[in-house]
Specification:
The protein folds into three domains: 239 residues, 2-enoyl-CoA Hydratase, Chain A, domain 1 (Alpha-Beta Complex); 195 residues, 2-enoyl-CoA Hydratase, Chain A, domain 1, CATH 3.90.226.10; 34 residues, no CATH class. A hairpin with a 7-residue loop joins strand 10 and strand 11. By secondary structure, it is α/β, with parallel strands linked by helices. The longest helix is centred in the N-terminal third of the chain and has 17 residues. The protein starts with a helix and ends in a 17-residue tail after the last helix. Strands 10, 11, 12, 13, 14, 15, 16 and 17 form an eight-stranded mixed beta sheet that branches. A seven-stranded mixed beta sheet has the order 1-2-3-4-5-7-9, with helices on both faces. Helix 12 packs parallel to helix 14 and helix 16 packs antiparallel against helix 17.
Length: 515
C-alpha cells in the first residue's frame, strides 16, 4: 500500500509536538515546570513562531540509546517575535531524553545562532538539560565547543539571553556564562560544574543541588546570574521586559518609547534629601526613582554586591544604563565583587549603544587585608578599563562623596566622561577629612593641649575648604554644580546633545582587560 506523503509529514509533525510523551510531560508539570513548547507559547508573540529542525533525530543507537527516536532530539529552535521585534530562540525539552545535549542538538542550536548573527537579532536560550549525552561520548563534548565558539563570536554583535529553567550542569554552564544576561527560576533551576554526587565522592562534602547551584547562590553569591524569577512564566516575562532596553544588534540604538513622564518634572524633595550628617546612610534607589522615568528602573545583579546598583532605566523614553553607589550598604564603597559588577555592566551598555549615567557617593575602595590578598587592585582596575574604553555618552552626578581613586574611576573626565554634574552636597577630595587632618597636622595635634578639639578643628577646616564641589568646578573637573531637584532635566538635556556623539578607540586587535 502506498503511503500518503502528506500524511507522513503530518504524523512526524504531530510526534514532534508530543515531546517525550504524556507521562514525561506530567512529570515535568509535577515539578512546577512548563514544557518547552508551553514556554515558547508564553514568550513568543502568538502566530509568529517559525520552527526549524523539528524532524531532526539522533543517529547513534549504541550504548543503550535503543531504537526509539524523537523528532527534534530534545530541543526546539526557530524564529519568532517578542512585542513585534524579531528574535531567534532555542528551548531544550527535558521530556525528551532529559534534554541531554547531543550532536544533533548542537547542530540545530548552532544553525539558529549563525542565522541570529546574520540577521542581526537577539538570541534567547531556554536551558533545561541533564547535561551532555553520555552515549555519544566525545561527539557531545565537541558539540558543546561549537556552541561556545559561537557565543564568543556573537558577543557584542547581538544580545544573548540565557534562561535557566531546570538543571544546567557540566559543560552546559559555560554557554550561559558567555552570554550577556542569565535569568534563573527559583526552586527549579540550578547550575554547577560538578554535581552533589561527584562532590561527595571527591571531597566528602554533602550538599543539595539547590544549595550548590540554585538561583539564590548564583544571584547573590557567585554573580553568575543577573536576574531571578519566581516561576517559568515570570522568567519569560522578565525576558520581554529586558529586551525592551536592548537594541536588535550593535549597529542599532535601543528602542525608544513615546515619552510618558514630564521631562521638566522637578522633584523638590531632592533639595532636602541628603542627611545632615555626611556619615548617615540613605537609599540611592530613592534618588534614582525620583530622577528616571516613573517605573522604568530595572535592576541588574540586584542581589549581588548590593553596595553598588546597576540598572536599566529610561529618561524621556530613552534607555540608559545606571551605575550608582549604594550608601546604605558598606557606605557605597567599592570592593572586589562590586568592581566586577560595575565593569561588566558598563561594557554591556557600551556594546549595545546604551548611555551610562553614574551616580557617585563613594568613600573609596573597601580597605582590608583580605581585599588586598584577593586582588582588589586588579578588580578595581576593571572599572577604570571599562569606563575608559566605553565610547557611549557618559554622564555623572556626584551626590555626596567622591573620594580618592573612586572619583577617578567612576566616570571622571579623565575616564572619558562627557559631562559631570555635582550636587552642592558633593565632597570631592583625595581622602577623607579625618585622615587628611591627621596626615597634614599630626604633629600639631599631638602637641596641642586638647588634641581632640584641635583635631576636630582641623577636620572642620579641611571640610570647609576642600570638601565641596566648587574647587573641582573652578578647575573644570565638574561642568556644573546643580540643584538636586533639576537633576532629571539636566540629564535629559545632556543626553539629547550627546545622542549623535561619535568616538572611536585607537585601532588594535584588543587590549588586555585586567582579568
Amino acid at each position: 500500500m502506498t503511503t500518503d506523503p502528506l500524511e507522513t509529514l503530518r504524523t512526524k509533525r504531530e510526534a514532534a509536538l508530543q515531546g517525550g510523551g504524556t507521562t514525561r510531560i506530567e512529570t515535568q508539570h509535577s515539578k512546577g515546570k512548563l514544557t518547552a513548547r508551553e514556554r515558547l507559547a508564553i514568550l513568543i508573540d502568538e502566530g509568529s513562531f517559525q520552527e526549524f529542525g523539528a524532524l531532526a533525530t539522533h543517529q547513534n543507537h549504541d550504548f543503550g540509546m535503543g531504537k526509539e527516536r524523537y523528532p527534534g532530539d530534545g530541543v526546539i529552535t526557530g524564529f519568532g517575535k517578542i512585542n513585534g521585534r524579531r528574535v531567534a530562540v532555542f528551548a531544550q525539552d527535558f521530556t525528551v531524553l532529559g534534554g541531554s545535549f547531543s550532536e544533533v542538538q548542537s547542530q540545530k542550536i548552532c544553525r539558529i545562532m549563525d542565522l541570529s548573527m546574520e540577521a542581526g537579532i537577539p538570541l534567547i536560550g531556554l536551558n533545561d538539560s541533564g547535561g551532555a549525552r553520555v552515549q555519544e561520548g566525545v561527539k557531545s563534548l565537541a558539540a558543546y565547543g561549537e556552541v561556545f565558539y559561537r557565543n564568543v563570536a556573537a558577543s557584542g554583535v547581538v544580545p544573548q539571553l540565557s534562561v535557566i529553567m531546570g538543571p544546567c550542569a557540566g559543560g552546559a554552564v559555560y554557554s550561559p556564562a558567555l552570554t550577556d544576561f542569565t535569568i534563573m527560576v527559583e526552586g527549579t533551576s540550578n547550575m554547577f560544574l560538578t554535581g552533589p554526587g561527584i562532590i561527595k565522592a571527591v571531597t566528602g562534602e554533602e550538599v543539595t543541588a539547590e544549595d550548590l547551584g540554585g538561583s539564590w547562590v548564583h544571584n547573590a553569591r557567585s554573580g553568575v546570574a543577573q536576574f531571578s524569577a519566581e516561576s517559568d512564566a515570570a522568567a519569560l516575562g522578565l525576558v520581554k521586559v529586558l529586551l525592551g532596553y536592548l537594541p536588535q544588534n550593535n549597529t542599532e540604538d535601543p528602542p525608544a518609547l513615546a515619552p510618558y513622564d514630564d521631562p521638566y518634572r522637578q522633584e523638590l524633595s531632592l533639595d532636602t534629601f541628603m542627611p545632615a550628617e555626611d556619615t548617615m546612610p540613605y537609599d540611592m534607589r530613592d534618588v534614582l526613582n525620583l530622577v528616571v522615568d516613573a517605573g522604568s528602573l530595572l535592576e541588574n545583579h540586584e542581589q549581588f554586591a548590593p553596595n553598588v546598583i546597576t540598572a536599566f532605566a529610561r529618561l524621556d523614553g530613552r534607555a540608559v544604563g545606571i551605575v550608582a553607589n549604594q550608601p546604605a550598604v558598606l557606605s557605597g564603597a567599592l570592593d572586589l565583587d562590586s568592581s566586577d559588577k560595575v565593569s561588566r555592566f558598563v561594557r554591556v551598555c557600551d556594546m549595545f549603544n546604551i548611555p551610562v549615567v553614574t551616580f557617585v557617593d563613594c568613600p573609596g575602595y573597601l580597605p582590608g587585608v583580605e581585599q588586598e590578598y584577593q586582588g582588589v587592585i586588579r578588580h578595581g582596575a576593571k572599572v577604570i578599563y571599562a569606563y575608559a574604553q566605553a565610547t557611549v555618552p557618559k554622564l555623572s552626578v556626584i551626590t555626596r562623596k567622591a573620594i580618592g581613586g573612586s572619583y577617578v574611576a567612576l566616570s571622571s573626565k579623565q575616564m572619558g566622561g562627557d559631562i559631570a554634574f555635582a550636587w552642592p552636597t558633593a565632597q570631592i577630595a583625595v581622602m577623607g577629612a579625618e585622615g587628611a587632618a591627621r596626615l597634614l597636622h599630626g604633629k600639631e595635634i599631638a602637641a596641642a593641649e586638647d588634641p581632640e578639639k584641635t583635631e576636630a578643628d582641623f577636620i572642620a577646616d579641611y571640610k570647609e575648604r576642600l570638601f565641596n564641589p566648587y574647587q573641582a568646578a573652578d578647575v573644570g573637573q565638574i561642568d556644573e554644580v546643580i540643584e538636586p531637584s533639576e537633576t532629571r532635566l539636566r540629564l535629559i538635556r545632556a543626553l539629547e546633545v550627546l545622542r549623535t556623539k561619535v568616538h572611536t578607540n585607537l585601532p588594535k586587535k584588543h587590549g588586555l582587560f585586567p582579568v
